[in-house]
Amino acid sequence: MLLTDKFGRRISDLRISITDRCNYRCVYCRSGSDGPQFPEMPIADYLRMARVFVGLGITKVRLTGGEPLLRKGLVDMVRELGQMHTVEGNRLDIAITTNGHLLAEMAQPLADAGLSRVTVSMDAVDADRFARITRVPNGYERVLAGVRAAQQAGLSPVKINCVLMRGFNDDQITAFGRFAREQGVAVRFIEFMPLEEDRVWTPEIVVTLDEILRRMAEFMPLREIGHMGSDTARRYVFEDGLGEIGIIAPVSHPFCGHCSRVRVTSDGKIRTCLFSVREHDLAALMQAGCSDEDMADFICDVVDHKEERHHIGEPGFIPASRTMVHIGG
Fold this sequence. Notes:
about 15% strand, alpha/beta
């Protein structure tokens, strides 16, 4: 029995937030006043959930936060996930999204434990601008060291996620193009979504896929390369083949029709969409003493009711019931 929703989408990608704590206070994400709001579960509980999901056809598990590298026991968790195999008998694809501040010390242990890939959130390639965005001094050099440590540990290609906002960091577009070429990373620009704590999102703030392509072409033309239907990013390389750019465009070019994702929050709630207004309490079911079979039935029912699409920018749009840092990236 493989996870499929009522729209026929195969669900193969599980994202687990293992903490909503973060050591950064990025201005577009956090108000600066609110810290952790939801409890963390024991690592063993996340692993049990993951085993049940994998038994239902999940092939990729991404660990998120908050900042997942803050979570004690992370390396052991990756090692346990590395012992799991998909229903087809293949090795589980294990990834982490991190702000990179602690990555220099942890990249090699995580790679040794079985981590497949790492994505680093990084919204400027200028040290002063980076400090203003994150509200953490001297963070840029630490993150850059983390990126290089991940490359040395064999976690390449390292992906860099940059959330673009008009009048805030959109002047970094071509700088990121140079960064991709010089550092050997895949830079992915993400259209700004209404998931921040201060709820200041407007359509005018969004720097769209089409605009990114136009502005990058002023630096050097791009050509599109192939991608899987369920991939979130449209992928491009520069005309000379050096340097990859991806653009994740949920606002201007939604990809809901190919969505293969489901999320578990740090307190064990299933979210079937970033913009869900309802959550499904898998942790409570576990605490009540349910069997793995009961959990599987519950998960299948939840996924069957996955939303067809989000409604960003439409009249009557209802913001997500949690902000991004409390959902998991």
